[in-house]
């Protein structure tokens, strides 16, 4: 990553959602290292307060904490209003908040599924609209959407989750072209299995094969920031995941589903 590229971010404000752990924590640290001021948004204030203190001390940047349940129907508008009231202009939006649900669709309480859809799709869409609209008016901005390797095919036992990430990927790639003439870069990052708290939250245990393919969160987050700086429409994190995504172009969808079921449940 060139110094010229990182200088493009220095001194700007970034909003990182889901910033209390996992990829969100890594995104925050990587951006702070580039002298980006941060707004951290997630439910757990205590962990964000500690992260904010660490980042201020380590990098000398300004860090604000917004403790908010982003799965609430009015979360996006409340967060935007709060930042407007503090005269904080967001130049970089990292739409990282989200969670998955593992198991048969009919065995999962529908309230859990709709809550996931609210966060993974609706809140992300609203945040992208609210902050993207301001960026387009300024003719400058960057938006990173976190999709998934599961966005490339249907995945039994992750049916609704994979579908939400397919939406994020398609949404982000379309906006990449729509907003580019307005000076706004939109990039979709597709991580594979990553060593975060995802499995515990999803109610899943990683299969032996999946554990072999697991990446650490730091290089995954770094690949997303790099792709955003490069102005790319989409990035798949890790060479093995890139191969998996490419293979979907060559195999029937029925084979894709069978393969994913074996990988996820082996």
TrEMBL record:
Protein origin, superkingdom: Bacteria
InterPro entries reported in the protein's UniProt record: NAD(P)-bd_dom_sf, Sc_DH/Rdtase_CS, SDR_fam
SUPFAM superfamilies listed in its UniProt record: NAD(P)-binding Rossmann-fold domains
GO cellular component entries: membrane
An example Gene Ontology molecular-function term: oxidoreductase activity
PANTHER family hit by this protein: DEHYDROGENASE/REDUCTASE SDR FAMILY MEMBER 7B, SHORT-CHAIN DEHYDROGENASE-RELATED
The UniProt record lists the keyword Protein biosynthesis: no
Keywords on record: Oxidoreductase
Protein name: SDR family oxidoreductase
Family: Belongs to the short-chain dehydrogenases/reductases (SDR) family.
